[in-house]
């Protein structure tokens, strides 16, 4: 038994040594010992390569506007570990983390002695979420974000009211497969028998896998661009405005504050989910949807930290995410010189990501950060073809140098791994405050 939050957290993170062990047997074993809390929760399951967290946030905010209590399970965390398990958008307390870990610790130790082996870090955190929403703090609905893939992901023990697959991209290819179709097969594993599926998957081979799986499972499918259509989309100073036609309703002049066409798509999936939940005992009206979308905020997604100087952080951690970032930079800030600071994990397909950044950046700085799988700046810089580039092992120094040397016609973009940005954001805010520079207030 642990006596402090710090001890509990150290134990959880210590399980990273076990790596990734796909499969559900350990999950099922632990949940059975806990009385199957996952069976006591009404859930929505959200998978996909990009857009999971944003889609979850839009849906959570819509539900909260209608007065429902909403649990969330997301990954990775951005500023605080406790964010992984949230209740009505607020991370659970240190005391609750300690309570959950002490419930699971003896099970993990017992499981360690079996042929199944001990649970991984992600399995432990997922069981904590099920235990929390099932036995500690029940919610009207819990939204579960898939960690990796879908078919063998630790979250895939639930029987949700509906499933969402946002997108399919070539990420985690060493685990999920090298092709869109192979990755789609893993993602499609969350599609359940007779359970509605909402998706924005575009790539043809991936979409075909999704459709075939849905057909086998007799899952009614709602596709963006087919029976869910975006209309009258325009970018605004604050974000995006669009209209949406679903199978149930037509919504005019919806507004979101997270910029980008991809965010319009994520919001559309959430609205479709709200329409379907309305048929499943969760009465949601148009004003709940409009107000929920308008106040939705998810950190690290084209997030403006300050206006003068203009600093944006964006967790573009794969090729599709980088494409969305560069598109938005060209559309919104084509008149500004762009300074870019980039850090990434070594297991990503970095060459294409850096090539896209090269196409928009006027200067590139590659940095190291302290994380087990972090790529070295000295390796990243070799993948860049731009002439105006440099490497810096000290990312704090790199950011401070850039901020203090910026001109009015320039902007600073800090991007790459979300693990990197989770360290960067608090540092930037502290630095700006010390310089008496106004920080943009988030929701």
Provide an overview of this structure.
By secondary structure, the protein is an alpha/beta fold. The chain folds into two domains: 291 residues, UDP-N-acetylmuramoyl-L-alanine:D-glutamate ligase (3-Layer(aba) Sandwich); 132 residues, Mur ligase, C-terminal domain (Protein-Tyrosine Phosphatase, Chain A, Alpha-Beta Complex), CATH 3.90.190. 40% of the residues lie in helices and 18% in strands. It contains 15 helices and 17 strands. An eight-stranded mixed beta sheet has the order 4-3-2-5-1-6-7-8, with helices on both faces. Strands 12-13-17-14-15-16 form a six-stranded mixed beta sheet, with helices on both faces. β7, α8 and β8 form a beta-alpha-beta unit. α2 crosses α4, α3 packs across α9 and α7 packs parallel to α8. The model has no long low-confidence stretch (mean pLDDT 94).
State the main characteristics:
443 residues, alpha/beta, UDP-N-acetylmuramoyl-L-alanine:D-glutamate ligase, Protein-Tyrosine Phosphatase, Chain A, 2 domains, six-stranded mixed sheet, 15 helices, 17 strands, 40% helix, 18% strand, globular
Chain-wise SSE layout:
Blueprint lengths: L4 H10 L10 H9 L9 E5 L4 H14 L4 E4 L11 E3 L2 E2 L2 H19 L8 H16 L4 E5 L16 E4 L7 H4 L3 H8 L9 E3 L4 H13 L4 E3 L5 E7 L4 E6 L4 E7 L4 H18 L7 H10 L7 E4 L3 E5 L4 H14 L4 E7 L6 H11 L2 E5 L9 H4 L8 E4 L2 H11 L4 E7 L1 H17 L9
Parallel strand pairs: 1-5, 1-6, 2-5, 6-7, 7-8, 13-17, 14-15, 14-17, 15-16
Antiparallel strand pairs: 2-3, 3-4, 9-10, 10-11, 12-13
Helix pairs in contact: 1-4, 2-4, 2-5, 3-9, 3-10, 4-5, 7-8, 11-12, 14-15
């Amino acid at each position: 038994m642990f006596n402090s939050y710090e001890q509990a957290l150290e134990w959880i993170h210590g399980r990273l040594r076990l790596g990734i062990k796909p499969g559900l047997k350990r999950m099922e074993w632990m949940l059975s010992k806990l009385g199957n809390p996952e069976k006591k929760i009404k859930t929505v399951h959200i998978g996909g390569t990009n857009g999971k967290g944003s889609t979850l946030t839009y849906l959570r905010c819509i539900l909260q506007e209608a007065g429902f209590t909403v649990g969330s399970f997301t990954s990775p965390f951005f500023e605080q570990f406790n964010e992984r398990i949230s209740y009505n958008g607020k991370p659970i307390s240190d005391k609750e983390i300690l309570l959950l870990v002490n419930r699971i610790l003896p099970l993990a130790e017992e499981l360690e002695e079996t042929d199944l082996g001990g649970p991984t870090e992600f399995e432990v955190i997922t069981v904590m979420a099920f235990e929390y929403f099932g036995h500690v703090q029940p919610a009207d609905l819990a939204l579960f974000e898939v960690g990796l893939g879908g078919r063998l992901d630790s979250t895939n023990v639930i029987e949700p009211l509906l499933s969402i697959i946002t997108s399919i991209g070539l990420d985690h290819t060493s685990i999920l497969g090298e092709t869109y179709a192979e990755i789609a097969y893993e993602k499609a594993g969350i599609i359940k028998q007779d359970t509605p599926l909402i998706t924005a998957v575009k790539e043809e081979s991936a979409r075909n896998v999704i459709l075939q799986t849905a057909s086998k499972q007799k899952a009614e499918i709602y596709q963006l661009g087919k029976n869910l259509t975006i209309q009258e989309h325009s970018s605004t100073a604050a974000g995006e405005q669009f209209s949406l036609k679903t199978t149930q309703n037509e919504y005019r002049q919806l507004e979101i504050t997270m910029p980008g066409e991809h965010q319009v798509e994520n919001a559309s999936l959430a609205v479709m989910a709200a329409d379907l939940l309305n048929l499943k005992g969760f009465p949601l009206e148009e004003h709940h949807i409009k107000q929920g979308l308008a106040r939705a905020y998810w950190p690290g997604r084209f997030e403006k930290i300050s206006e003068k100087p203009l600093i944006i952080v964006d967790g573009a951690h794969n090729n599709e995410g980088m494409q969305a970032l560069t598109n938005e930079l060209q559309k919104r800030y084509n008149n500004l010189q762009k300074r870019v600071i980039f850090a990434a994990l070594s297991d990503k397909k970095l060459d294409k990501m850096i090539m896209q950044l090269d196409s928009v950046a006027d200067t590139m700085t590659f940095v190291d950060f302290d994380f087990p799988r972090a790529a070295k700046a000295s390796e990243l810089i070799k993948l860049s073809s731009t002439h105006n580039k440099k490497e810096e092992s000290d990312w704090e120094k790199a950011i401070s140098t850039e901020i203090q040397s910026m001109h009015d016609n320039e902007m600073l973009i800090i991007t790459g791994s979300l693990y990197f940005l989770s360290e960067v954001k608090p540092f930037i805010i502290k630095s700006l405050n010390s310089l008496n520079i106004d920080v943009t207030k988030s929701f």
